[in-house]
Amino acid sequence: MKITATDLACERGGRIVFTELNFAVESGRFLELTGPNGAGKSSLLRLLSGLSEPRHGRLKLAGGGGDLTLAEQAHYIAHGEASKSALSVAENLIFWRDFLGGGDLANALGAVNLASLADYPVALLSEGQKRRLALARLALVTRPIWLLDEPSAGLDAASQKLLISLMRQHLKSDGIIIAATHVSLGLKPDQSLHLSGASQS
Hints:
The protein is of the alpha/beta class. Helices cover 29% and strands 26% of the residues.
């Protein structure tokens, strides 16, 4: 599997975020996105996830699951939480399991050390626990592409180790990880792409 971006440009709110962006990342590789706020890291992840369209340029996926699009084969974990505060931890994951077409609930809870809080209301979780719940989707349903926006935000040292373990396992399984971050994730990237704004190459 290989993701290739060619002459990619992004516009948000009438502003050109970046142009002339080119990169390629293959199975088993971790591409780290860096750069200041507003440079386009989150915008690029949204393009890859299919939530927005490029102003021009092309995103191409080679290999993977038949006729499925890049977005259909990706987990996108945004910087903001996507949990429902009125539901329990387990109920949130059951929602995602049903939405994504099946998955192993017990494995997901164990992977992020939330099994003991399965019946706990999300509204009462700490920020770090909510972040772990978001990351649990990575272990819930197998998808080859992970698009992560500041995945370690709010995590304590022990939880960061859980994240690193999940990422290493995914890469060993020939998965692709593209992660935007302001800090080191504790896992050396295979590739780095620094976004600085309007013109990239």
